[in-house]
Write a structure and sequence with these properties.
This protein is mostly helical. The chain has one domain. It is built from 6 helices and 3 strands, in the order H-H-H-E-E-H-H-H-E. It comes from Eiseniibacteriota bacterium. This is C-type cytochrome.
Length: about 190
Amino acid sequence: MRRIPSVTLLLPLLLATSLALLSCAHETPAPAPLSGADQIARGYYLATVTGCNDCHTPGYFYGAPDTTRRLSGSELGWKGPWGVSYARNLTPEPHTGIGAWSEADIVTAIKTGKRPDGSMLLPPMPWPDFAALTDEDAMAIAKYLKALTPVMHKMPDRVAPGAAVKGSIIELPPPSAWDAPRTPAPATPSSTP
């Protein structure tokens, strides 16, 4: 009886295993970047799921949104240690909205909290949460905002801490020892998650 060398038996098995592993090793190509209407639709979706309407659409917080003025700002004030702030007009209206902002300005504001003039967005705008958005997603939101119908709707100016306020407000009490910002320096380990 003729004996088959073990290498001959192992060779097909090794070849099959190698081919299987190689077929798994290819990278899945990144999806093609969205453009045009698809990018605006993505921006609409993201603005919806991130809650932009909650604060920036009149009446939304009360359960009666004025959809004819979607994202044009709300007179509902947010009171905290910074004073009282109001959700701004996000439509491309040039005088009361963000019409003078470029798409890049909007992306910067979404991801860093900085306005084109270098000033910071006021609380409760959760820009630190939005910093994790990809540049593509932030740009989709910017394109959506630029595609909105411009709505002239001037919002009240910020009210300094302790000043009298007219209208409805939501008060966000500070922690017992508020000293903004409470974020530790990068080299300092944090004791909280």
